[in-house]
Design brief:
Helices cover about 45% and strands about 15% of the residues. By secondary structure, it is of the alpha+beta class. The termini are far apart.
Length: about 130
C-alpha cells in the first residue's frame, strides 16, 4: 500500500470510525479501493463482522463533487456481489494500469450494436448473465 493510499484510508477511518449496524471499529483492511483516478477515489468500507457496507468517494484536489455523488449513487443502486468486494484485497483499477493496456477505440459499429442491444434490453442483468452462462 503506497503512502497516498494510507493517507486516504486514514481520512476515511477518521470520519467513519465504527460500523453503523454492529458498532465494530473499522480497520484499514476494511477499506477496499474500487477505482482510483487522480481526482476521485471510489471505495467500499465493508464490515468484517456483519454484512454492512458503505460506498465512499474521496474527491481530491480540484475533483468534481457532483461527479462523485453520481458515481456513489450508481454504486449504491447496483447489486454489488459481497464476495467480489471481499476478494478485492488491495487490487485497484487506476489510470496508469488502464493506460498501459489501452483498448481499441469505440467504433461507429460498436455504438450501433449497443443501441440495438439497449433497445430490447429490459434491465435484468441477472437473467442476462444466467442465460449467457448456460
Amino acid at each position: 500500500m503506497n503512502t497516498s493510499e494510507k493517507q486516504i484510508k486514514r481520512i476515511v477511518l477518521d470520519r467513519m470510525e465504527r460500523c453503523s449496524v454492529c458498532h465494530r471499529g473499522y480497520q484499514p483492511d476494511d477499506i477496499h479501493v474500487l477505482s482510483r483516478r487522480t481526482d476521485l477515489w471510489m471505495m467500499v468500507v465493508a464490515c468484517a463482522e456483519c454484512p454492512a457496507r458503505n460506498f465512499v468517494a474521496a474527491v481530491l484536489n480540484d475533483g468534481d463533487p457532483q461527479e462523485a455523488q453520481l458515481a456513489l449513487r450508481r454504486l449504491s443502486q447496483a447489486d454489488v456481489d459481497p464476495d467480489l468486494i471481499a476478494g478485492l484485497g488491495g487490487s485497484i483499477r487506476d489510470e496508469q494500469a488502464l493506460a498501459d493496456s489501452p483498448a481499441p477505440p469505440v467504433s461507429v459499429d460498436d455504438v450501433l450494436d449497443m443501441h440495438e442491444f439497449l433497445g430490447g434490453f429490459d434491465g435484468d442483468f441477472q437473467k442476462m448473465f444466467r442465460a449467457g452462462a448456460g
